[in-house]
Amino acid sequence: MNLIICIEDRFGMAFNNRRLSMDKAVREKILEAAAGKTLWVRSYSRKQFEEEGEASVRTDDQFLEKAGDGEYCFAELEDVTPYKDRLEGIVLFRWNRRYPADLYFDPELLKPFQLVKTEEFPGSSHEKITMEVYSL
Fold it and tell me: Is this structure's pTM higher than 0.90?
Protein backbone atom coordinates (compact mmCIF):
# COMPACT_ATOMS: atom_id res chain seq x y z
CA MET A 1 0.00 0.00 0.00
CA ASN A 2 0.99 3.61 -0.51
CA LEU A 3 0.52 5.93 2.42
CA ILE A 4 -0.58 9.58 2.18
CA ILE A 5 0.01 11.77 5.24
CA CYS A 6 -0.25 15.51 5.99
CA ILE A 7 2.25 16.78 8.55
CA GLU A 8 3.43 19.96 10.20
CA ASP A 9 7.12 20.88 10.67
CA ARG A 10 7.66 18.48 13.58
CA PHE A 11 5.87 15.57 11.85
CA GLY A 12 2.65 16.20 13.77
CA MET A 13 -0.47 14.76 12.13
CA ALA A 14 -3.31 15.46 14.54
CA PHE A 15 -4.22 17.10 17.82
CA ASN A 16 -6.98 15.98 20.17
CA ASN A 17 -8.30 13.49 17.57
CA ARG A 18 -8.65 16.19 14.91
CA ARG A 19 -6.66 16.86 11.75
CA LEU A 20 -4.30 19.81 11.94
CA SER A 21 -5.52 21.32 8.72
CA MET A 22 -7.16 20.51 5.41
CA ASP A 23 -6.81 22.02 1.99
CA LYS A 24 -8.68 21.69 -1.31
CA ALA A 25 -5.46 21.81 -3.35
CA VAL A 26 -4.04 18.94 -1.28
CA ARG A 27 -7.19 16.88 -1.90
CA GLU A 28 -6.76 17.45 -5.64
CA LYS A 29 -3.11 16.30 -5.44
CA ILE A 30 -4.16 13.23 -3.43
CA LEU A 31 -6.69 12.28 -6.09
CA GLU A 32 -4.07 12.82 -8.82
CA ALA A 33 -1.55 10.62 -6.98
CA ALA A 34 -4.12 7.84 -6.57
CA ALA A 35 -5.62 8.17 -10.06
CA GLY A 36 -6.59 4.78 -11.41
CA LYS A 37 -6.14 3.13 -8.02
CA THR A 38 -8.32 2.79 -4.96
CA LEU A 39 -7.93 5.50 -2.33
CA TRP A 40 -8.84 4.24 1.14
CA VAL A 41 -9.96 6.61 3.92
CA ARG A 42 -11.72 6.31 7.25
CA SER A 43 -15.19 7.80 7.68
CA TYR A 44 -13.71 10.90 9.39
CA SER A 45 -11.67 11.69 6.27
CA ARG A 46 -14.36 10.82 3.72
CA LYS A 47 -16.11 14.16 4.29
CA GLN A 48 -13.17 15.90 2.65
CA PHE A 49 -13.72 14.06 -0.63
CA GLU A 50 -17.50 14.29 -0.87
CA GLU A 51 -17.57 17.45 -2.96
CA GLU A 52 -15.20 15.86 -5.45
CA GLY A 53 -17.67 12.96 -5.71
CA GLU A 54 -14.79 10.62 -6.32
CA ALA A 55 -15.98 7.06 -6.93
CA SER A 56 -12.53 5.55 -6.38
CA VAL A 57 -12.55 6.62 -2.70
CA ARG A 58 -13.42 3.69 -0.44
CA THR A 59 -14.41 4.29 3.16
CA ASP A 60 -13.76 1.87 5.99
CA ASP A 61 -12.49 2.56 9.49
CA GLN A 62 -10.25 -0.53 9.11
CA PHE A 63 -8.81 0.78 5.84
CA LEU A 64 -5.17 0.20 6.75
CA GLU A 65 -5.90 -3.51 7.17
CA LYS A 66 -8.01 -3.73 4.01
CA ALA A 67 -5.84 -1.83 1.52
CA GLY A 68 -4.15 -4.02 -1.06
CA ASP A 69 -0.94 -3.81 -3.04
CA GLY A 70 -0.71 -0.63 -5.10
CA GLU A 71 -3.65 1.01 -3.38
CA TYR A 72 -3.48 4.30 -1.48
CA CYS A 73 -4.38 5.10 2.12
CA PHE A 74 -4.95 8.64 3.38
CA ALA A 75 -4.28 8.50 7.12
CA GLU A 76 -5.03 11.43 9.42
CA LEU A 77 -5.72 10.00 12.88
CA GLU A 78 -3.95 6.64 12.76
CA ASP A 79 -0.63 5.42 14.05
CA VAL A 80 0.70 3.97 10.81
CA THR A 81 3.83 2.41 12.33
CA PRO A 82 2.27 -1.09 12.70
CA TYR A 83 1.82 -1.17 8.90
CA LYS A 84 5.43 -0.29 7.99
CA ASP A 85 6.15 -3.72 6.45
CA ARG A 86 3.29 -3.26 3.97
CA LEU A 87 4.37 0.16 2.71
CA GLU A 88 5.31 0.47 -0.97
CA GLY A 89 5.49 4.25 -1.00
CA ILE A 90 4.77 7.36 1.04
CA VAL A 91 3.40 10.74 -0.04
CA LEU A 92 3.92 13.50 2.51
CA PHE A 93 2.18 16.84 2.37
CA ARG A 94 4.02 19.34 4.52
CA TRP A 95 2.07 22.31 5.83
CA ASN A 96 5.37 24.19 6.42
CA ARG A 97 4.12 25.45 9.77
CA ARG A 98 4.11 24.40 13.40
CA TYR A 99 0.86 23.34 14.94
CA PRO A 100 0.12 21.71 18.29
CA ALA A 101 0.06 17.94 17.84
CA ASP A 102 -0.28 14.80 19.90
CA LEU A 103 -0.14 12.24 17.07
CA TYR A 104 3.07 12.14 15.04
CA PHE A 105 4.33 10.46 11.91
CA ASP A 106 7.52 8.55 12.67
CA PRO A 107 10.21 9.82 10.26
CA GLU A 108 12.03 6.49 10.71
CA LEU A 109 9.41 5.06 8.35
CA LEU A 110 11.05 7.02 5.53
CA LYS A 111 14.45 5.29 5.90
CA PRO A 112 13.95 2.45 3.39
CA PHE A 113 12.53 4.88 0.81
CA GLN A 114 14.08 7.32 -1.63
CA LEU A 115 12.71 10.78 -2.26
CA VAL A 116 11.73 10.70 -5.95
CA LYS A 117 9.70 13.90 -6.31
CA THR A 118 9.26 17.23 -4.53
CA GLU A 119 6.68 19.80 -5.53
CA GLU A 120 5.72 23.08 -3.91
CA PHE A 121 2.33 24.55 -4.66
CA PRO A 122 -0.02 27.17 -3.24
CA GLY A 123 -2.91 25.77 -1.25
CA SER A 124 -6.31 27.19 -0.48
CA SER A 125 -5.42 27.39 3.22
CA HIS A 126 -1.63 27.71 3.13
CA GLU A 127 0.59 29.95 1.03
CA LYS A 128 3.02 27.10 0.34
CA ILE A 129 2.51 23.35 0.68
CA THR A 130 5.26 20.87 -0.13
CA MET A 131 4.51 17.45 -1.53
CA GLU A 132 7.22 14.78 -1.18
CA VAL A 133 6.89 11.41 -2.89
CA TYR A 134 8.96 8.51 -1.56
CA SER A 135 9.39 5.16 -3.29
CA LEU A 136 11.30 1.92 -2.63
Answer: yes
